[in-house]
Amino acid sequence: MSFDYTPFLRADLPAPATRFGGFPKYNFVGGHNDAGSVPVADLAAAASAVLTREGPTLATYGLNSGPQGYTALRQGIARHLGSKAGLACSADDILVTSGSLQALDLINAVFIQPGDTAIVEEGCYGGAMTRLKKLGASYVGAPLDGDGIRMDALSNILDNLKAKGTVPKFVYTIPTVQNPTGSVMPVERRVELLRLAASHGIPIVEDDCYADLIWDGDRPTAIKGLPGGDRVVYCGSFSKSIAPALRVGYIVADWPVLSRMLPLKTDGGTGALEQMVLAEYLAGSFDDHVAALRSTLKGKCAAMMEAVNREFGAAAEFSAPKGGIFLWVTLPDAVDTMQLFKAAGAEGVAINPGGEWSADAAAGSHKLRLCFANPSVEEIREGVAKLAEICHREFGVPVRSGNVGRSG
Amino acid sequence: MSFDYTPFLRADLPAPATRFGGFPKYNFVGGHNDAGSVPVADLAAAASAVLTREGPTLATYGLNSGPQGYTALRQGIARHLGSKAGLACSADDILVTSGSLQALDLINAVFIQPGDTAIVEEGCYGGAMTRLKKLGASYVGAPLDGDGIRMDALSNILDNLKAKGTVPKFVYTIPTVQNPTGSVMPVERRVELLRLAASHGIPIVEDDCYADLIWDGDRPTAIKGLPGGDRVVYCGSFSKSIAPALRVGYIVADWPVLSRMLPLKTDGGTGALEQMVLAEYLAGSFDDHVAALRSTLKGKCAAMMEAVNREFGAAAEFSAPKGGIFLWVTLPDAVDTMQLFKAAGAEGVAINPGGEWSADAAAGSHKLRLCFANPSVEEIREGVAKLAEICHREFGVPVRSGNVGRSG
C-alpha cells in the first residue's frame, strides 16, 4: 500500500492528468510545427559558437544579464521588432519569458483579480480564456470580421460595460494572424482600436506570436508601435517561427509594468542555453529560415483547404488564412464539434472543437480549428477524409465528398 | 506622459523590482557556480550531437515525450538516482521542471493552502520560506545539529502540533549538504525521520539539489530510496552540478502526486534544448565533471574557511561543510547581520543575512551565509577581509584579524 496523499492535497485542484499516450495519428491540434523545417544544422552551429564563446557565463544565474533575460537576446528581439513590426524598443523594455504562455501568466498575474472583466476576441486562443477563468475573471468576446475585431461592436461593448460601471482590465487581441481565424488587422483599424481604448482609458494586450508567419512576410506595424502604443503590453514568441519545444517568449512593456512582473517570475530565469542559441540564431539565418518556413506552411495551408473543400464540399465554410498554422472552419448547425472531437479523437483524428476557441462556447459549437503545420500533406489528406467520414456517420453531413455522394 | 497602469494593477502585488545593476564585486550570495568549471566543450559537443540526431522533434511541444519531460532525460535521471542516491525509480515517476524552483512551486501548489503549517529546518533555504509565506502558510523550524534535523526536537514539534490539532502538510528537508549548514544527515537518522513521519502520518519533501556536491562523492541513500519512501516527494536539479543558468530540475513522486502537478505546469513544457543537451551530457562525461567540480569547490571552501578564520578569528564560528557551495557563520551577538548586509552591500560585498535563512529570523540575526563557488580564491580573500573591516567599523568586532589587532 502506497502512502495516501489525498488528505494533504489542496481541495481545489484541477482534475488529475492522464498519462501521455503519444500524439494522435492525424494531429490537427496545438502549435506544433513542420518537423522538416526545424533549422537543425544552424541551431547546432549556433549552440556550438555561443557556448564556445560565452559558456562560462552559465555559471551565474541569468548569464550576468539580470532577471530580464540574456542581454544579447533582448537586443536581438528589439532589432527584430524594430525592423519587422515597426516597434521601436530597447533591451530595457523587454522581459524574456519561458515561452509566451509564461508571458500570458505574468500579464494576468499583474492585472487580473477575481471578479475582473477582460475583453477578448469572439474567436480566441483557448488557453487565454482558460487562464482568465482560472483566475476568477470573466470575459466578453468582441465580434470579428475578415479584418479582426469590429470596432463598432467593440465600441458598443465598452459603452455597455461603462453603463454597468465595469472597467475592463484590458482588451486582449491577436491582431496579426488572428487565432483562430487567420485574419490580419489592417493598420487603420489598429489606429481605431487605440483611439477607442484611449477614449475608455484602458490598456491593450497584444499577442503577436504568429506574426512572423504572415504569408507575404509583410507585417503591419504592431499596435504597440503606433502612436499611443504606450497603453499596449506586447508579447511574442519563437515557438511558431523556430520550434515550439524551445520555450522562449517575451514581453515588451514599460518599466512600471515589467517591474511588477519581475517579482512574480519565480523560476530563477528562463533557460539560458535556449536564450543563447536563439540570440545567436536570430542574428544569423533567422530571416531566411522564416521565409522558407512561410512557404512550406502556405503549401500545407493550401493542402488543408483543398482537402476540406474536397471532403466537406458545401458543408464547410472558411476564409483563407493570411498566414499561420490553422484553418477555422464552420460546419452546418447540425454538427456539434465537441461530439465530433470525441468521435474523431477515438479514431486518431485530433481537432480543436470550436466551443473551446470561442468566447461564447455555444456560438462556436459547430466550428472547429484544424492545425496544418505538423502533419504531412499526405496526413492532411487522409485525416480530413477520415474526419468527413466520421462527421457523416455522426451527423449525416457532409452529404457529398469530392464527386461522390455519401449514402444518408 | 506615458499611460498610467496603476489603476489596472492588482492591489496585492509585491514591491516592484529595481533595475539589475550587475553583480557585486564580491559575490558571496546565490547558487552561482565556478565559471571555469562549466564543461563548455562537452556541452557544445552534446548540443551538436543531440540536435543533429533529434533536432526535428523540436517541432512538437514536449519532444514527443509528453508533459513529464524528454524521455531520454527522465531515463538518465532515473539511472543517475539509482546508482548515486540508492533511489530506484523509472522515467514514469519523474516530472522534469523548469529548475528546482518550479519544482518547489509545484509541490507547494498541490499541497499548500492559506492557513497551512509546514515543518522546515531551523536554518533553511530562504526561497522555500518566502514561498510558503506568500501562499499564506506558516512554518515551524526544526532544530539542527551537525547531522541535520534533531529527531528528539522534531518529535516534540510534531507532538505539540498534534496537541493543537494541527497536521503539518509536510516536513521540508535538505538532508544532503543542508542549506545553509552544509551538514549531511546519516542514514540512521533518515530512517528515524521516516519512522517519525509515519507515526504522525505525514509526507516528507526531500530537496536534494546539492547532493552531487558532497566532498567524498559518496551520497547516502536518499530518504525517498529507503523503506517507507513512498511518503516522500523528492526534487533535484542540475543547477549546482552543471550550471545554474540551465533551468532543469525534476520531481520524483508517485503518479497520484505527479498527475495533480501536471495541470498546474502551464508553461508548455520545460525548455527542450536544455533537456536534450543535459540528457546527452548526463550519459557522457557528467560523472567525471562532477568529480572535478567537487575538488574545485572543496578548494574554494578551504579558502573561504581560511579567510574567515584569518579575518574574523575567534569572532566567527562555523562547522566545516561536508560539501556544497556555502559556509554558515555565526558572529557575536552584537552583530546584526541584516545591518552588516546593508553596509557591506553598499561597498560591493554581497552576503546572505542569517535572518533570511532562518525559520526564526531573530535567532538567525547574527548569522550569515557565505557562498564560495563563484568568486575566485583571490576575491574570497579580498572580500572577506573587506567584510571584516566593515563589520569592525559597524560593530567593533572582530577585534583581531590575522595577527593584527584592530583599533576599537
UniProtKB/TrEMBL annotation, chains A, B:
<keyword id="KW-0032">Aminotransferase</keyword>
<dbReference type="InterPro" id="IPR004839">
    <property type="entry name" value="Aminotransferase_I/II_large"/>
</dbReference>
<dbReference type="InterPro" id="IPR015421">
    <property type="entry name" value="PyrdxlP-dep_Trfase_major"/>
</dbReference>
<comment type="subunit">
    <text>Homodimer.</text>
</comment>
<dbReference type="InterPro" id="IPR050859">
    <property type="entry name" value="Class-I_PLP-dep_aminotransf"/>
</dbReference>
<keyword id="KW-0808">Transferase</keyword>
<dbReference type="InterPro" id="IPR015424">
    <property type="entry name" value="PyrdxlP-dep_Trfase"/>
</dbReference>
<protein>
    <submittedName>
        <fullName>Aminotransferase</fullName>
    </submittedName>
</protein>
<dbReference type="GO" id="GO:0008483">
    <property type="term" value="F:transaminase activity"/>
</dbReference>
<dbReference type="InterPro" id="IPR015422">
    <property type="entry name" value="PyrdxlP-dep_Trfase_small"/>
</dbReference>
<dbReference type="Pfam" id="PF00155">
    <property type="entry name" value="Aminotran_1_2"/>
</dbReference>
<feature type="domain" description="Aminotransferase class I/classII large">
    <location>
        <begin position="44"/>
        <end position="387"/>
    </location>
</feature>
<keyword id="KW-0663">Pyridoxal phosphate</keyword>
<dbReference type="GO" id="GO:1901605">
    <property type="term" value="P:alpha-amino acid metabolic process"/>
</dbReference>
<dbReference type="GO" id="GO:0030170">
    <property type="term" value="F:pyridoxal phosphate binding"/>
</dbReference>
<comment type="similarity">
    <text>Belongs to the class-I pyridoxal-phosphate-dependent aminotransferase family.</text>
</comment>
